[in-house]
Amino acid sequence: MHIYKVGGAVRDRLLGRPVSDIDWLVVGATAEEMHAKGYRPVGADFPVFLHPTTGEEYALARTERKSGRGYGGFTFHASPDVTLEQDLIRRDLTINAMAEDEHGTVYDPYHGQADLEQRILRHVSAAFAEDPLRVLRVARFAARYAPLGFQVADETLALMRQIAESGELQALTAERSWKEIERALMESQPQVFIQVLRSCGALRELMPELEHGADTTMALQRAAQHQQPLAVRWACLLRALEPAAIKALNQRFKVPRECQELALLVAEWAPLADDALQLAPAKLLEMLQKFDVYRRPQRFEDFLAACQMAVSVGYPQAAYLRGAATAARAVDAQALMRSGLTGQGLGEALKDARLKALEAYKGD
């Protein structure tokens, strides 16, 4: 029984990057032996166990073969006879197919260290094409390591194009696809994720709405540079689309509600925000009411951030709209209630008072 660190922990240590999660691989053991040593089994697809004290995951070495469509269409075989090399060859990229033993010795049968040095994202074997999720994963790694100069190998890009043309991407579940998209959007250069998907034909299959029309990757890049949250980045990416297209994308990937809402609001209201200084008080109030700036101020801030990311110069409209929101919020609803107003009458009085506040604000 031999235990190795594998995958990202080895890769990132060699790159000098922080190592957060560690994946452990056990070679030469049976499930019964793991039980006997106090490891607790988890998962039904293949033998994975939790360490009795650390709680970290330890997987038995395994092989796999394609048995169906999509990410889950595989049959796994775990056995003490499966070698380290056999386990590593089923992995996606050479830089993820290295192992390290307890003495710090690196096992690198597929030349991952050479590809690290050459800054290349290269598939391990032809079996790469059997898993369509790897198209998204490679594009995500390209986004993560773009600051270090990494590029996708031509032959790997060709395999990714082959997967896109096969229709296998359509077999991916919404949850698995969104998980990769979400992680990619939060990388330091998320625009690279979109560019790689476009270059291999996968964007046309997964997000055809983004294939043509205005290029929003610069806005997405700025959002990453300013460390904006996920909802802002998603809204920046979809800003140029029609509401129907945004709704289709949101539904296709079961996007979180916060991201859905902001993307639609940005598409609808960003053009008016760009002309904020010319908006009539009534239109300003309509915008503020739509965003519910009284109870959900952060959503309006996220909206302004998404608008700001679309331009490479200053965006004075943001400060102007913040001031308008402050003026509208300053109206004392409690005073109106103390005067005896309730229900519809209170709502109309609040609206009138806020409109007067915005008229005074525009007059400053």
From TrEMBL:
Enzyme Commission number(s) from the entry: 2.7.7.72
tRNA nucleotidyltransferase/poly(A) polymerase RNA and SrmB- binding domain boundaries: 149-211
Matching Gene3D superfamilies: Beta Polymerase, domain 2, cca-adding enzyme, domain 2
List of residues binding Mg(2+): 21, 23
Residues that coordinate or bind ATP: 8, 11, 91, 137, 140
Keywords, sorted A to Z: ATP-binding, Hydrolase, Magnesium, Metal-binding, Nucleotide-binding, Nucleotidyltransferase, RNA repair, RNA-binding, Transferase, tRNA processing
GO function terms (MF aspect): CCA tRNA nucleotidyltransferase activity; hydrolase activity
Cofactor: Mg(2+)
Catalytic activity: a tRNA precursor + 2 CTP + ATP = a tRNA with a 3' CCA end + 3 diphosphate; a tRNA with a 3' CCA end + 2 CTP + ATP = a tRNA with a 3' CCACCA end + 3 diphosphate
Binding site for CTP: 8, 11, 91, 137, 140
InterPro entries with a match to the protein in the record: CCA_bact, NT_sf, PolA_pol_head_dom, PolyA_RNA-bd, tRNA_CCA-adding_enzyme
Family the entry assigns: Belongs to the tRNA nucleotidyltransferase/poly(A) polymerase family. Bacterial CCA-adding enzyme type 2 subfamily.
Role description: Catalyzes the addition and repair of the essential 3'-terminal CCA sequence in tRNAs without using a nucleic acid template. Adds these three nucleotides in the order of C, C, and A to the tRNA nucleotide-73, using CTP and ATP as substrates and producing inorganic pyrophosphate. tRNA 3'-terminal CCA addition is required both for tRNA processing and repair. Also involved in tRNA surveillance by mediating tandem CCA addition to generate a CCACCA at the 3' terminus of unstable tRNAs. While stable tRNAs receive only 3'-terminal CCA, unstable tRNAs are marked with CCACCA and rapidly degraded.
Cited NCBIfam families: PRK10885.1 (NF008137)
Note: A single active site specifically recognizes both ATP and CTP and is responsible for their addition.
Protein name as it appears in the record: CCA-adding enzyme
